[in-house]
Protein backbone atom coordinates (compact mmCIF):
# COMPACT_ATOMS: atom_id res chain seq x y z
CA UNK A 1 0.00 0.00 0.00
CA UNK A 2 2.87 2.38 0.87
CA UNK A 3 4.53 1.60 -2.45
CA UNK A 4 1.31 2.46 -4.28
CA UNK A 5 1.09 5.81 -2.43
CA UNK A 6 4.68 6.59 -3.42
CA UNK A 7 3.86 5.81 -7.06
CA UNK A 8 0.79 8.08 -6.88
CA UNK A 9 2.89 10.89 -5.38
CA UNK A 10 5.47 10.35 -8.13
CA UNK A 11 2.80 10.70 -10.83
CA UNK A 12 1.34 13.80 -9.18
CA UNK A 13 4.76 15.46 -9.08
CA UNK A 14 5.30 14.60 -12.73
CA UNK A 15 1.96 16.23 -13.56
CA UNK A 16 3.01 19.38 -11.68
CA UNK A 17 6.34 19.48 -13.52
CA UNK A 18 4.58 19.00 -16.83
CA UNK A 19 2.69 22.29 -16.35
CA UNK A 20 5.96 24.26 -16.04
CA UNK A 21 7.98 22.69 -18.85
CA UNK A 22 6.83 25.34 -21.43
CA UNK A 23 8.19 28.16 -19.18
CA UNK A 24 11.78 26.91 -19.19
CA UNK A 25 13.81 29.49 -21.13
CA UNK A 26 17.17 27.73 -21.48
CA UNK A 27 18.10 24.79 -23.66
CA UNK A 28 20.80 23.74 -21.16
CA UNK A 29 18.31 24.01 -18.30
CA UNK A 30 15.74 21.99 -20.25
CA UNK A 31 18.33 19.35 -21.14
CA UNK A 32 19.36 18.90 -17.48
CA UNK A 33 15.71 18.58 -16.43
CA UNK A 34 15.12 15.98 -19.12
CA UNK A 35 18.21 13.96 -18.09
CA UNK A 36 17.24 13.98 -14.38
CA UNK A 37 13.59 13.16 -15.14
CA UNK A 38 14.68 10.19 -17.27
CA UNK A 39 17.06 9.08 -14.48
CA UNK A 40 14.39 9.37 -11.77
CA UNK A 41 11.79 7.64 -13.96
CA UNK A 42 14.04 4.59 -14.26
CA UNK A 43 14.67 4.25 -10.47
CA UNK A 44 12.70 1.41 -8.94
CA UNK A 45 14.76 0.54 -5.80
CA UNK A 46 14.37 3.40 -3.32
CA UNK A 47 11.12 5.18 -4.15
CA UNK A 48 11.38 7.56 -1.15
CA UNK A 49 14.71 8.91 -2.40
CA UNK A 50 13.31 9.08 -5.91
CA UNK A 51 10.29 11.11 -4.79
CA UNK A 52 12.53 13.40 -2.67
CA UNK A 53 14.71 14.19 -5.68
CA UNK A 54 11.64 14.71 -7.84
CA UNK A 55 10.04 17.09 -5.28
CA UNK A 56 13.23 19.17 -5.09
CA UNK A 57 13.43 19.27 -8.90
CA UNK A 58 9.77 20.30 -9.03
CA UNK A 59 10.41 23.26 -6.69
CA UNK A 60 13.45 24.37 -8.68
CA UNK A 61 11.52 24.16 -11.95
CA UNK A 62 8.71 26.24 -10.42
CA UNK A 63 11.16 28.92 -9.26
CA UNK A 64 12.96 28.72 -12.64
CA UNK A 65 16.31 28.41 -10.78
CA UNK A 66 18.27 25.19 -11.15
CA UNK A 67 20.55 24.30 -8.19
CA UNK A 68 22.77 21.39 -7.28
CA UNK A 69 22.73 18.48 -7.78
CA UNK A 70 20.57 19.08 -10.86
CA UNK A 71 23.17 21.34 -12.54
CA UNK A 72 25.41 18.31 -13.06
CA UNK A 73 24.98 14.95 -14.71
CA UNK A 74 23.24 12.35 -12.50
CA UNK A 75 25.51 9.68 -11.03
CA UNK A 76 25.46 6.11 -12.18
CA UNK A 77 23.17 3.91 -10.16
CA UNK A 78 20.77 5.26 -7.49
CA UNK A 79 21.57 8.78 -6.18
CA UNK A 80 22.49 8.87 -2.47
CA UNK A 81 20.36 10.82 0.02
CA UNK A 82 23.30 12.88 1.30
CA UNK A 83 23.90 14.28 -2.19
CA UNK A 84 20.59 16.09 -2.07
CA UNK A 85 21.25 19.69 -1.01
CA UNK A 86 18.97 20.95 1.76
CA UNK A 87 17.56 24.23 0.51
CA UNK A 88 15.02 26.58 1.92
CA UNK A 89 11.51 25.38 1.42
CA UNK A 90 9.63 27.45 -1.13
CA UNK A 91 5.97 27.56 -1.96
CA UNK A 92 4.92 25.49 -4.92
CA UNK A 93 2.89 27.11 -7.66
CA UNK A 94 -0.81 26.35 -7.41
CA UNK A 95 -2.04 24.03 -10.14
CA UNK A 96 -5.23 21.99 -9.83
CA UNK A 97 -4.59 18.33 -10.55
CA UNK A 98 -7.80 16.81 -11.80
CA UNK A 99 -6.46 13.77 -13.61
CA UNK A 100 -3.55 11.66 -12.33
CA UNK A 101 -3.38 9.64 -15.51
CA UNK A 102 -2.40 12.55 -17.81
CA UNK A 103 1.00 12.56 -19.47
CA UNK A 104 3.60 14.80 -17.79
CA UNK A 105 5.48 15.19 -21.08
CA UNK A 106 2.53 16.69 -23.01
CA UNK A 107 3.77 20.24 -23.75
CA UNK A 108 0.62 21.21 -25.65
CA UNK A 109 -1.66 21.20 -22.58
CA UNK A 110 -3.74 24.36 -22.36
CA UNK A 111 -3.35 24.47 -18.53
CA UNK A 112 0.22 25.72 -18.97
CA UNK A 113 -1.16 29.27 -19.37
CA UNK A 114 -2.78 29.29 -15.90
CA UNK A 115 -1.74 31.83 -13.29
CA UNK A 116 1.33 31.18 -11.10
CA UNK A 117 0.29 33.22 -8.06
CA UNK A 118 -1.47 30.74 -5.71
CA UNK A 119 -0.16 27.74 -3.78
CA UNK A 120 -1.27 24.18 -4.65
CA UNK A 121 -2.50 22.34 -1.54
CA UNK A 122 -1.84 18.92 -3.08
CA UNK A 123 1.70 19.87 -4.03
CA UNK A 124 2.37 21.30 -0.54
CA UNK A 125 0.99 18.18 1.08
CA UNK A 126 3.19 15.92 -1.04
CA UNK A 127 6.23 18.14 -0.46
CA UNK A 128 5.67 18.26 3.33
CA UNK A 129 5.50 14.48 3.47
CA UNK A 130 8.64 14.16 1.45
CA UNK A 131 10.41 16.83 3.56
CA UNK A 132 9.57 14.93 6.73
CA UNK A 133 10.89 11.68 5.30
CA UNK A 134 13.95 13.46 3.98
CA UNK A 135 14.69 15.23 7.31
CA UNK A 136 14.81 11.87 9.06
CA UNK A 137 17.53 10.72 6.72
CA UNK A 138 19.26 14.13 6.60
CA UNK A 139 19.56 14.18 10.41
CA UNK A 140 21.34 10.86 10.22
CA UNK A 141 23.84 12.31 7.75
CA UNK A 142 24.54 15.72 9.39
CA UNK A 143 28.05 14.59 10.09
CA UNK A 144 28.69 14.45 6.40
CA UNK A 145 27.32 17.92 5.63
CA UNK A 146 30.32 19.79 7.02
CA UNK A 147 32.52 18.22 4.42
CA UNK A 148 30.22 19.37 1.67
CA UNK A 149 30.55 23.15 2.29
CA UNK A 150 33.33 23.42 -0.21
CA UNK A 151 31.24 21.54 -2.73
CA UNK A 152 28.42 24.04 -2.14
CA UNK A 153 30.73 26.95 -2.96
CA UNK A 154 31.84 25.25 -6.14
CA UNK A 155 28.20 24.65 -7.05
CA UNK A 156 27.41 28.34 -6.45
CA UNK A 157 30.25 29.36 -8.79
CA UNK A 158 29.04 26.91 -11.39
CA UNK A 159 25.52 28.28 -11.00
CA UNK A 160 26.73 31.88 -11.59
CA UNK A 161 28.74 30.72 -14.60
CA UNK A 162 25.73 28.83 -15.88
CA UNK A 163 23.55 31.95 -15.40
CA UNK A 164 26.02 34.08 -17.39
CA UNK A 165 26.13 31.40 -20.03
CA UNK A 166 22.34 31.35 -20.16
CA UNK A 167 22.17 35.17 -20.59
CA UNK A 168 24.82 35.13 -23.33
CA UNK A 169 23.07 32.20 -25.00
CA UNK A 170 19.75 34.04 -24.88
CA UNK A 171 21.30 37.22 -26.31
CA UNK A 172 22.83 35.25 -29.17
CA UNK A 173 19.56 33.40 -29.71
CA UNK A 174 17.51 36.63 -29.64
CA UNK A 175 19.89 38.31 -32.13
CA UNK A 176 19.73 35.33 -34.46
CA UNK A 177 15.95 35.22 -34.11
CA UNK A 178 15.66 38.96 -34.84
CA UNK A 179 17.86 38.56 -37.89
CA UNK A 180 15.81 35.56 -38.94
CA UNK A 181 12.62 37.55 -38.30
CA UNK A 182 13.80 40.43 -40.49
CA UNK A 183 14.76 37.95 -43.19
CA UNK A 184 11.38 36.25 -42.92
CA UNK A 185 9.59 39.62 -43.05
CA UNK A 186 11.54 40.60 -46.16
CA UNK A 187 10.94 37.16 -47.65
CA UNK A 188 7.25 37.47 -46.79
CA UNK A 189 7.13 40.85 -48.54
CA UNK A 190 8.88 39.40 -51.56
CA UNK A 191 6.50 36.45 -51.59
CA UNK A 192 3.51 38.76 -51.26
CA UNK A 193 4.75 40.83 -54.20
CA UNK A 194 5.36 37.63 -56.17
CA UNK A 195 1.87 36.42 -55.22
CA UNK A 196 0.33 39.70 -56.37
CA UNK A 197 2.27 39.51 -59.62
CA UNK A 198 1.22 35.91 -60.10
CA UNK A 199 -2.39 36.81 -59.33
CA UNK A 200 -2.30 39.58 -61.91
CA UNK A 201 -0.50 37.32 -64.36
CA UNK A 202 -3.00 34.55 -63.70
CA UNK A 203 -5.92 36.91 -64.23
CA UNK A 204 -4.36 38.21 -67.44
CA UNK A 205 -3.60 34.68 -68.57
CA UNK A 206 -7.14 33.58 -67.76
CA UNK A 207 -8.59 36.51 -69.69
CA UNK A 208 -6.20 35.87 -72.57
CA UNK A 209 -6.93 32.14 -72.51
CA UNK A 210 -10.67 32.74 -72.46
CA UNK A 211 -10.39 35.22 -75.32
CA UNK A 212 -8.06 32.89 -77.21
CA UNK A 213 -10.34 29.91 -76.59
CA UNK A 214 -13.37 31.91 -77.71
CA UNK A 215 -11.47 33.13 -80.75
CA UNK A 216 -10.26 29.60 -81.53
CA UNK A 217 -13.77 28.26 -81.07
CA UNK A 218 -15.20 30.92 -83.39
CA UNK A 219 -12.50 30.29 -85.98
CA UNK A 220 -13.00 26.55 -85.65
CA UNK A 221 -16.76 26.82 -86.05
CA UNK A 222 -16.36 29.15 -89.03
CA UNK A 223 -13.75 26.88 -90.58
CA UNK A 224 -15.92 23.85 -89.87
CA UNK A 225 -18.97 25.51 -91.47
CA UNK A 226 -16.90 26.56 -94.49
CA UNK A 227 -15.46 23.07 -94.81
CA UNK A 228 -18.94 21.56 -94.57
CA UNK A 229 -20.23 23.92 -97.27
CA UNK A 230 -17.20 23.17 -99.46
CA UNK A 231 -17.61 19.45 -98.91
CA UNK A 232 -21.31 19.64 -99.74
CA UNK A 233 -20.62 21.63 -102.90
CA UNK A 234 -17.80 19.34 -103.90
CA UNK A 235 -19.86 16.26 -103.15
CA UNK A 236 -22.81 17.61 -105.14
CA UNK A 237 -20.48 18.43 -108.04
CA UNK A 238 -18.88 15.00 -107.84
CA UNK A 239 -22.29 13.34 -107.72
CA UNK A 240 -23.49 15.43 -110.67
CA UNK A 241 -20.36 14.63 -112.68
CA UNK A 242 -20.58 10.99 -111.67
CA UNK A 243 -24.22 10.84 -112.66
CA UNK A 244 -23.44 12.53 -115.95
CA UNK A 245 -20.50 10.21 -116.59
CA UNK A 246 -22.51 7.14 -115.66
CA UNK A 247 -25.39 8.29 -117.86
CA UNK A 248 -23.05 8.84 -120.80
CA UNK A 249 -21.36 5.50 -120.19
CA UNK A 250 -24.75 3.82 -119.91
CA UNK A 251 -25.93 5.39 -123.15
CA UNK A 252 -22.69 4.40 -124.86
CA UNK A 253 -22.95 0.86 -123.53
CA UNK A 254 -26.62 0.72 -124.47
CA UNK A 255 -25.86 1.98 -127.96
CA UNK A 256 -23.02 -0.49 -128.26
CA UNK A 257 -25.23 -3.34 -127.04
CA UNK A 258 -28.00 -2.25 -129.41
CA UNK A 259 -25.57 -2.22 -132.31
CA UNK A 260 -24.27 -5.64 -131.28
CA UNK A 261 -27.84 -6.92 -131.08
CA UNK A 262 -28.65 -5.43 -134.46
CA UNK A 263 -25.60 -7.09 -135.95
CA UNK A 264 -26.54 -10.41 -134.35
CA UNK A 265 -30.15 -10.01 -135.52
CA UNK A 266 -28.97 -9.27 -139.05
CA UNK A 267 -26.71 -12.30 -138.92
CA UNK A 268 -29.58 -14.44 -137.64
CA UNK A 269 -31.86 -13.04 -140.33
CA UNK A 270 -29.30 -13.86 -142.99
CA UNK A 271 -28.89 -17.34 -141.58
CA UNK A 272 -32.66 -17.73 -141.41
CA UNK A 273 -33.07 -16.48 -144.95
CA UNK A 274 -30.33 -18.80 -146.11
CA UNK A 275 -32.02 -21.67 -144.32
CA UNK A 276 -35.38 -20.70 -145.80
CA UNK A 277 -33.87 -20.41 -149.23
CA UNK A 278 -32.30 -23.84 -148.79
CA UNK A 279 -35.64 -25.22 -147.63
CA UNK A 280 -37.42 -23.54 -150.53
CA UNK A 281 -34.90 -25.00 -152.90
CA UNK A 282 -35.37 -28.39 -151.33
CA UNK A 283 -39.15 -28.01 -151.56
CA UNK A 284 -38.83 -26.85 -155.13
CA UNK A 285 -36.57 -29.79 -155.91
CA UNK A 286 -39.01 -32.19 -154.28
CA UNK A 287 -41.94 -30.58 -156.05
CA UNK A 288 -40.07 -30.95 -159.33
CA UNK A 289 -39.39 -34.55 -158.53
CA UNK A 290 -43.04 -35.05 -157.65
CA UNK A 291 -44.13 -33.36 -160.81
CA UNK A 292 -41.74 -35.48 -162.81
CA UNK A 293 -43.03 -38.58 -161.10
CA UNK A 294 -46.57 -37.47 -161.66
CA UNK A 295 -45.88 -36.84 -165.35
CA UNK A 296 -44.15 -40.15 -165.63
CA UNK A 297 -47.04 -41.87 -163.90
CA UNK A 298 -49.52 -39.99 -166.02
CA UNK A 299 -47.61 -40.96 -169.12
CA UNK A 300 -47.51 -44.53 -167.93
CA UNK A 301 -51.22 -44.43 -167.20
CA UNK A 302 -52.01 -42.93 -170.55
CA UNK A 303 -49.84 -45.48 -172.26
CA UNK A 304 -51.51 -48.18 -170.28
CA UNK A 305 -54.88 -46.82 -171.18
CA UNK A 306 -53.94 -46.76 -174.79
CA UNK A 307 -52.64 -50.26 -174.50
CA UNK A 308 -55.77 -51.29 -172.65
CA UNK A 309 -57.88 -49.75 -175.27
CA UNK A 310 -55.92 -51.42 -177.95
CA UNK A 311 -55.78 -54.70 -176.09
CA UNK A 312 -58.78 -56.87 -176.37
CA UNK A 313 -57.92 -59.27 -173.75
CA UNK A 314 -60.10 -58.69 -170.71
CA UNK A 315 -57.64 -60.30 -168.47
CA UNK A 316 -55.01 -57.89 -169.33
CA UNK A 317 -57.43 -55.09 -168.85
CA UNK A 318 -58.25 -56.30 -165.42
CA UNK A 319 -54.55 -56.50 -164.56
CA UNK A 320 -53.97 -53.06 -165.91
CA UNK A 321 -56.80 -51.67 -163.84
CA UNK A 322 -55.24 -53.15 -160.76
CA UNK A 323 -51.92 -51.67 -161.72
CA UNK A 324 -53.53 -48.29 -162.25
CA UNK A 325 -55.27 -48.42 -158.91
CA UNK A 326 -51.99 -49.37 -157.27
CA UNK A 327 -50.21 -46.59 -159.06
CA UNK A 328 -52.84 -44.10 -157.95
CA UNK A 329 -52.57 -45.30 -154.35
CA UNK A 330 -48.78 -45.05 -154.51
CA UNK A 331 -49.07 -41.58 -156.00
CA UNK A 332 -51.49 -40.47 -153.28
CA UNK A 333 -49.31 -41.98 -150.62
CA UNK A 334 -46.16 -40.32 -151.91
CA UNK A 335 -48.04 -37.05 -152.25
CA UNK A 336 -49.20 -37.27 -148.61
CA UNK A 337 -45.69 -38.10 -147.50
CA UNK A 338 -44.29 -35.14 -149.42
CA UNK A 339 -46.91 -32.85 -147.89
CA UNK A 340 -46.13 -34.14 -144.40
CA UNK A 341 -42.42 -33.60 -145.01
CA UNK A 342 -43.10 -30.05 -146.18
CA UNK A 343 -45.25 -29.34 -143.10
CA UNK A 344 -42.59 -30.80 -140.83
CA UNK A 345 -39.92 -28.63 -142.42
CA UNK A 346 -42.12 -25.55 -142.06
CA UNK A 347 -42.73 -26.35 -138.37
CA UNK A 348 -39.00 -26.83 -137.79
CA UNK A 349 -38.29 -23.50 -139.43
CA UNK A 350 -40.93 -21.77 -137.30
CA UNK A 351 -39.58 -23.40 -134.12
CA UNK A 352 -36.03 -22.38 -134.96
CA UNK A 353 -37.16 -18.84 -135.73
CA UNK A 354 -39.13 -18.58 -132.44
CA UNK A 355 -36.20 -20.07 -130.48
CA UNK A 356 -33.87 -17.55 -132.09
CA UNK A 357 -36.24 -14.72 -131.13
CA UNK A 358 -36.38 -15.99 -127.53
CA UNK A 359 -32.58 -16.29 -127.39
CA UNK A 360 -32.23 -12.76 -128.72
CA UNK A 361 -34.64 -11.41 -126.11
CA UNK A 362 -32.86 -13.31 -123.31
CA UNK A 363 -29.45 -12.07 -124.44
CA UNK A 364 -30.79 -8.53 -124.65
CA UNK A 365 -32.24 -8.77 -121.10
CA UNK A 366 -28.97 -10.23 -119.77
CA UNK A 367 -26.92 -7.48 -121.38
CA UNK A 368 -29.24 -4.81 -119.97
CA UNK A 369 -29.05 -6.39 -116.49
CA UNK A 370 -25.26 -6.58 -116.65
CA UNK A 371 -25.03 -2.97 -117.77
CA UNK A 372 -27.33 -1.79 -114.97
CA UNK A 373 -25.48 -3.90 -112.35
CA UNK A 374 -22.14 -2.52 -113.50
CA UNK A 375 -23.52 1.02 -113.42
CA UNK A 376 -24.95 0.48 -109.91
CA UNK A 377 -21.65 -0.97 -108.61
CA UNK A 378 -19.69 1.97 -110.01
CA UNK A 379 -22.14 4.41 -108.45
CA UNK A 380 -21.98 2.69 -105.02
CA UNK A 381 -18.18 2.53 -105.17
CA UNK A 382 -17.99 6.25 -105.92
CA UNK A 383 -20.39 7.05 -103.09
CA UNK A 384 -18.35 4.91 -100.67
CA UNK A 385 -15.15 6.67 -101.71
CA UNK A 386 -16.76 10.06 -101.15
CA UNK A 387 -18.08 8.96 -97.75
CA UNK A 388 -14.64 7.67 -96.67
CA UNK A 389 -13.00 10.89 -97.82
CA UNK A 390 -15.57 12.99 -95.92
CA UNK A 391 -15.08 10.90 -92.72
CA UNK A 392 -11.29 11.28 -92.99
CA UNK A 393 -11.63 15.05 -93.30
CA UNK A 394 -13.90 15.16 -90.23
CA UNK A 395 -11.43 13.02 -88.23
CA UNK A 396 -8.56 15.34 -89.20
CA UNK A 397 -10.66 18.32 -88.12
CA UNK A 398 -11.45 16.67 -84.75
CA UNK A 399 -7.74 15.87 -84.22
CA UNK A 400 -6.87 19.52 -84.82
CA UNK A 401 -9.47 20.60 -82.23
CA UNK A 402 -8.12 18.04 -79.72
CA UNK A 403 -4.56 19.37 -80.23
CA UNK A 404 -5.75 22.91 -79.48
CA UNK A 405 -7.58 21.67 -76.37
CA UNK A 406 -4.49 19.76 -75.14
CA UNK A 407 -2.38 22.88 -75.60
CA UNK A 408 -4.85 24.93 -73.52
CA UNK A 409 -4.94 22.24 -70.80
CA UNK A 410 -1.13 22.18 -70.69
CA UNK A 411 -1.05 25.98 -70.27
CA UNK A 412 -3.58 25.81 -67.41
CA UNK A 413 -1.65 22.96 -65.74
CA UNK A 414 1.61 24.96 -66.02
CA UNK A 415 0.00 27.99 -64.37
CA UNK A 416 -1.45 25.83 -61.56
CA UNK A 417 1.96 24.21 -60.96
CA UNK A 418 3.52 27.69 -60.85
CA UNK A 419 0.96 28.68 -58.20
CA UNK A 420 1.67 25.52 -56.17
CA UNK A 421 5.44 26.17 -56.35
CA UNK A 422 4.88 29.63 -54.84
CA UNK A 423 2.47 28.30 -52.19
CA UNK A 424 -0.68 29.90 -53.62
CA UNK A 425 -3.99 28.09 -53.32
CA UNK A 426 -5.87 28.26 -56.62
CA UNK A 427 -9.28 27.63 -54.99
CA UNK A 428 -8.58 30.40 -52.45
CA UNK A 429 -7.78 32.79 -55.31
CA UNK A 430 -11.02 31.91 -57.09
CA UNK A 431 -13.03 32.54 -53.91
CA UNK A 432 -11.20 35.83 -53.35
CA UNK A 433 -11.99 36.93 -56.92
CA UNK A 434 -15.63 36.07 -56.39
From TrEMBL:
Coiled coil: 181-208, 251-282, 328-396
Annotated DUF4485 domain residues: 6-77
Transmembrane spans: none
The keyword rRNA-binding is assigned to this record: no
InterPro entries: DUF4485
Keywords: Coiled coil
Official protein name in the record: DUF4485 domain-containing protein
